[in-house]
């Protein structure tokens, strides 16, 4: 991996200027087989309080509710189906927040519980309401403690893991950096538990160009995510200009050392070409309702020339979606081209696919839009 010479300077500059920080901690660091580790909770509160006293605004994204509930209920009751895990989360979440409240009270810090589902951020109105609430809490010097609302989230509306949630929250509040505390020292070029020759990777400058699957075999046991989920979340954050530091949460005073500019963990740099907050929302908060297949000429026009998608370039339509729905755009070979908001219903597109604009009016009558998907409402796969 070829590295530029100034990435450490970039990292130092970003950390020195950072004002709003997402700190994510996973179950592998936060819990033991006996449940929540109070020593970890207390050490984390001590470090976050110290950063807060420096003037940093901190949002803590925490796992641990299911693990805490499992300890109380017994492993047999909290294992298996989703309903059992949701019930365990309901029991564990109150204990998790109580532990944080007690720990932060020693430093006279006020915390707030924020439970989110993907559906909360998929609705633009609810997204903005959540943003306003979070920003007001930060203005009031409160430390929001965020977790997924496992108790009510159905599988289709789950973030998947709190790594993904941390990148969504970074976009929600306009964070400057994400610190992802994990059980590993950082990223390696192979799984160090299986390959003793695996090499530590201090910097990832172009994460969109990497094959993340090949780097990330295996996962830790306590939570739902492994290194792959952390890197996928870091890639999402990088597209909106937010860097991520993946670092061991088991090191002493790790947060203080990071902001004292000690060279720890793996730094994932932001991409040079960034998505707007709106396009990030399109790409990651909405679920596609169908698929539009485009021919080779249209695929080249979209990816190489930044054009909008016209009906003439459509080769097929899959699904039954309405106007304004998010759709996948794929090539003839099924390869991803991007996603976007369609100006036509699926039933209309099947009538006009492959046709020019004058021909479309003969079939549908006057249309307010010539483009099927306007480039301003489209996110290309190469940008993700």
TrEMBL record:
InterPro entries: AceGlu_kinase-like_sf, Asp/Glu/Uridylate_kinase, G5K_ProB, Glu/AcGlu_kinase, Glu_5kinase, Glu_5kinase/COase_Synthase, PUA, PUA-like_sf. Its EC number is 2.7.2.11. One of its GO terms (biological process) is L-proline biosynthetic process. It is found in: Cytoplasm. The keyword Cytoplasm applies. It is an enzyme of class 2 (transferase). The keyword Amino-acid biosynthesis applies. One of its GO terms (cellular component) is cytosol. PROSITE patterns: PUA. GO terms for molecular function: ATP binding; glutamate 5-kinase activity; RNA binding. It comes from the Bacteria. Pfam families: AA_kinase, PUA. Keywords: Amino-acid biosynthesis, ATP-binding, Cytoplasm, Kinase, Nucleotide-binding, Proline biosynthesis, Transferase. It catalyses: L-glutamate + ATP = L-glutamyl 5-phosphate + ADP. Substrate binds at residues 63, 150, 162. Pathway: Amino-acid biosynthesis; L-proline biosynthesis; L-glutamate 5-semialdehyde from L-glutamate: step 1/2. Residues 290-374 form the PUA domain. ATP binds at residues 24, 224-230. Catalyzes the transfer of a phosphate group to glutamate to form L-glutamate 5-phosphate. Belongs to the glutamate 5-kinase family. HAMAP family: ProB (MF_00456). NCBIfam families: proB. This is Glutamate 5-kinase. It comes from Desulfomicrobium apsheronum. The gene is proB.
């Amino acid at each position: 991996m070829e590295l530029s010479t100034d990435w450490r300077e970039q990292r130092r500059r970003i950390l020195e200027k950072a004002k709003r920080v997402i700190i994510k901690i996973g179950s592998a660091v936060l819990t033991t087989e006996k449940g929540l580790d109070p020593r970890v909770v207390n050490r984390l509160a001590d470090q976050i309080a110290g950063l807060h006293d420096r003037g940093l605004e901190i949002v803590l994204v925490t796992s641990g509710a299911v693990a805490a509930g499992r300890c109380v209920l017994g492993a047999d009751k909290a294992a298996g189906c989703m309903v059992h895990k949701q019930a365990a989360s309901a029991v564990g979440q109150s204990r998790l927040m109580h532990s944080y409240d007690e720990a932060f009270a020693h430093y006279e810090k006020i915390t707030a519980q924020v439970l989110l589902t993907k559906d909360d951020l998929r609705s633009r109105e609810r997204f903005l309401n959540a943003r306003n609430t979070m920003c007001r809490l930060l203005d009031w010097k409160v430390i929001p403690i965020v977790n997924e609302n496992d108790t009510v989230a159905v599988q289709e509306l789950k973030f998947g893991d709190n790594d993904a949630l941390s990148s969504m929250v970074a976009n929600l509040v306009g964070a400057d950096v994400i610190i992802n505390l994990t059980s590993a020292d950082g990223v390696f070029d192979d799984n160090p538990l299986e390959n003793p020759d695996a090499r530590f990777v201090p910097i990832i400058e172009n994460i969109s160009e990497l094959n993340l699957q090949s780097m990330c075999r295996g996962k830790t046991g306590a939570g739902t995510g492994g290194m792959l989920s952390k890197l996928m979340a870091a890639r999402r954050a990088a597209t909106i200009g937010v860097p991520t530091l993946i670092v061991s949460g088991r090191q002493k005073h790790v947060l203080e050392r990071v902001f004292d500019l000690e060279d720890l963990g793996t730094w994932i740099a932001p991409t040079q070409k960034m998505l707007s907050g709106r396009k990030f929302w399109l790409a990651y908060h909405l679920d596609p309702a169908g698929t539009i297949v485009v021919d080779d000429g249209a695929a080249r026009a979209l990816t190489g020339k930044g054009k909008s998608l016209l009906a003439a370039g459509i080769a097929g339509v899959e699904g039954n979606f309405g106007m304004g729905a998010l759709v996948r755009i794929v090539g003839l070979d099924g390869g991803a081209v991007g996603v976007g908001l369609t100006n036509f219903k699926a039933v209309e597109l099947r009538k006009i696919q492959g046709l020019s604009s004058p021909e479309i009016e003969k079939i549908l009558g006057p249309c307010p839009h010539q483009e099927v998907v306007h480039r301003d409402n489209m996110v290309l796969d190469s940008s993700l």
